[in-house]
Design brief:
This protein is of the alpha/beta class and 302 residues long. Helices cover 39% and strands 14% of the residues. α6 (139-150) packs across α7, α6 crosses α9 (190-206) and α10 (208-222) runs parallel beside α11. The longest helix is centred in the middle third of the chain and has 17 residues, at 190-206. The radius of gyration is 20 Å and the shape is globular. The termini are far apart. The model is unreliable at 100-110 (pLDDT under 50). InterPro entries: RsmH (IPR002903), SAM-dep_MeTrfase_MraW_recog (IPR023397), SAM-dependent_MTases_sf (IPR029063). This is Ribosomal RNA small subunit methyltransferase H. Belongs to the methyltransferase superfamily. RsmH family.
């Protein structure tokens, strides 16, 4: 199965500062590109755990006794590491978003390029698909997700059109949805707006932002002292959550300060934001919006 080149491969794995006998987690295994690079840098006593809820990823499992693939959503990272008797790890890597493979499989319904069933489930066992959302959500709820997750200013009009259209005929496919929303897709911006609409529905289907929040909240308790977090995000909603959590340890408000004005934030930013160079963007289109942020668990104050 073609999963394409992993984005920011060297940079994201360099960020982990891999120790030969360390324990690492790749929470978005996919085609296994990042995992293979981590394994190259591990010694014989090192250990790597991969997470992926998509059954297609099981076909890429790496035959290496240092590697374990856990076929679950990474929102359950602590629970499944505990099951494998792992309390603390040296580093965690996350390459968020949809894999190239998922975009390229028309029947998965992720892509605006192909006609396929309105599905968009990363976990194909999940009950809620894009079809359920488009055909069953209220106009108000549809408008809300299009506004919050697609950042669409005319979300109310788009939601109204979807609801009116489905009264006559159930909306089953990607192209059917695209066709009925054609009036909101001016030629110059057609792909951009359509991508925002699909992104909003996809985030709702897979609870992507909730998953990311739950995952990040577990990271400080999972990392060893000076352990590293390496996260690649592809849109501003994800990136804002990652950036804010690294800076404050919270998603809302500001951290409390002690009498000396110091705030107890568990993670510390490492280096600056990393983005792909022009050569990588040229050879791997998926890289164009990627942002890599790195953090380290602060050593406790002596």
């Amino acid at each position: 199965m073609n999963y394409h080149s992993p984005v920011l491969l060297q940079e994201s794995v360099d960020a982990l500062d891999v120790k030969e006998d360390g324990v690492y987690v790749d929470v978005t295994f996919g085609g296994g590109g990042h995992s293979r690079e981590i394994l190259k840098r591990l010694g014989e006593n090192g250990k790597l755990f991969g997470f992926d809820q998509d059954p297609d990823a099981l076909e890429n499992v790496i035959d290496d006794e240092r590697f374990v693939l856990i076929p679950e959503n990474f929102r359950f990272i602590s629970r499944f590491l505990r099951f494998h008797r792992v309390k603390k790890v040296d580093g965690i890597l996350a390459d968020l978003g949809v894999s190239s493979h998922q975009f390229d499989e028309a029947e998965r319904g992720f892509s605006i390029r192909f006609d396929g069933d309105l599905d968009m489930r990363m976990n194909q066992k999940s009950k809620v698909s894009a079809k359920e959302i488009v055909n069953n959500y209220s106009e108000e709820k549809l408008a809300e997700i299009l506004f919050l997750y697609g950042e669409l200013r005319n979300s109310r009009n788009i939601a109204k059109t979807i609801v009116e259209s489905r009264e006559n005929e159930k909306i089953e496919t990607s192209f059917q949805l695209r066709e009925l929303l054609q009036k909101y897709l001016p030629k110059a911006k057609e792909h951009k707006i359509l991508a925002q609409i699909f992104q909003a529905i996809r985030i709702e289907v897979n609870e992507e932002l909730d998953v990311l929040r739950e995952f990040l909240e577990q990271v400080p308790n999972l990392l060893k002292e000076d352990g590293r977090l390496s996260v690649i995000s592809y849109h501003s909603l994800e990136d804002r959550l990652v950036k804010r959590f690294i800076r404050t340890g919270l998603f809302r408000g500001e951290p409390e300060k002690d009498v000396f004005g110091n705030s107890d934030v568990p993670l510390q930013k490492v280096g600056k934001l990393i983005v792909p160079n022009s050569q990588e963007i040229k050879t791997n289109n998926r890289a164009r919006s990627a942002k890599l942020r790195i953090a380290e668990l602060k050593s406790p104050k002596k």
